[in-house]
Amino acid sequence: MSSFVFSEKPIGIERGEGVYLYDTNGNDYLDFGASYACTPVGHCHPTVVDAATDQLEELFYVQASYPHAERTRLYDRLAEIAPGDVEKVWLCNSGTEANEAALKFARHATGRSKIVATMQAFHGRTMGSLAATWKNEYKDGFGPLPAEFEFVPYGEREPLAEAVDEETAAVILEPLQGEGGINPASTEYLRSVREITEEAGAAMIADEIQTGLGRTGTTWAVEDHDVVPDVVTTAKGLASGLPIGATLVREWIAEDAGNHGSTFSGGPVVSAAANATLDVIESEKLAENATDVGAYLHEGVDELLGEEVRDVRGNGLMVGIEVKRGANALLPELALQHGVLALPAGRTVLRLLPPLTVTHEHADDVLDALEAVIG
């Protein structure tokens, strides 16, 4: 193996269909990780495949300064589904780029430099997003990182109120922390973030890269709390696994965002795949399905495992199961003996992020595997 970044798992994936992945030996796996939420409508959904294939036959690529129908449609579509009056759209290639743009836009629009982030946060691995990420293990050896980032406890109003001042450009946070352990925020807390940033003239940035597009039961996690940020970032599943990110902003940010760009911003093929993905999420009512099957999973874990787990938390199909032993130790047995792919979220939390198309029957298969491995 020539890669020096990724340690490869002992499963060679050959193809995917719906909620299943198939390896080179013909074994099937229920994909309850969805490659970190990158396949919300399942693998190779025919609507997405057809849209991307048709566009490939017409035009692979043209730079974003030349209008293209699929890109324009995606701009309009994202503005339409964004929270409140968040109506301006910038496209890029990944979640970390979307967050980099959000930080740059906020600094330029406010004329300030301080960024407040939260403990346990994960916002990406490029330098600005990395500076807003909590764990030192992601940062070691890469410094010095951009300065003027301050961390406060997640979910606590008073430390945030003390940290945000006249030098603060933005507060960036996940409405439900993913990598940090599937930690939900209360409505009271998120509304306090909105109030504190508004009073200080700072931007509220909601990192919805993992939570967005129906995963928590609403299009955006902030909607469940009736909060409208100044900036929303999205990526991962937006184009069903093709590389894309988007930074959605209010007018006051957009009108003074500074000089920013990207060579591959909203290419025709990825835009076509994104439009088709959004069509499927809406037409198949996948946010509603996430609420239904997510609740079913929560109830099932409580009933089957009980005292064997410390906690079950999350919203919709973003589920964290805090176990009494290392989460990473459970993953090989789940995959190799029970055909279920899952993810860790920190050392003790097993993370489930399946395609939003999963059914109660799929959930039953996963619950049986969890009972065998954990119980």
Write the layout of secondary structure elements.
Elements (H helix, E strand, L loop, with lengths): L12 E5 L2 E4 L4 E4 L2 H4 L8 H13 L10 H13 L6 E5 L2 H16 L3 E5 L8 H5 L17 E4 L4 H7 L4 E6 L2 E2 L5 E2 L2 H14 L2 E5 L23 E4 L10 E5 L1 H4 L13 H16 L2 H20 L3 E7 L2 E6 L3 H12 L1 E2 L1 E2 L4 E4 L7 H15 L1
Parallel strand pairs: 3-15, 5-6, 5-7, 7-10, 10-11
Antiparallel strand pairs: 1-2, 2-3, 4-12, 8-9, 11-12, 13-14, 14-17, 16-17
Helix pairs in contact: 2-9, 3-9, 10-12, 11-12
Kindly summarize this structure in a few lines.
With 375 residues, the protein is of the alpha/beta class. It has helices at residues 34-37, 46-58, 69-81, 95-110, 127-131, 157-163, 187-200, 251-254, 268-283, 286-305, 327-338, 360-374; strands at 13-17, 20-23, 28-31, 88-92, 114-118, 149-152, 168-173, 176-177, 183-184, 203-207, 231-234, 245-249, 309-315, 318-323, 340-341, 343-344, 349-352.
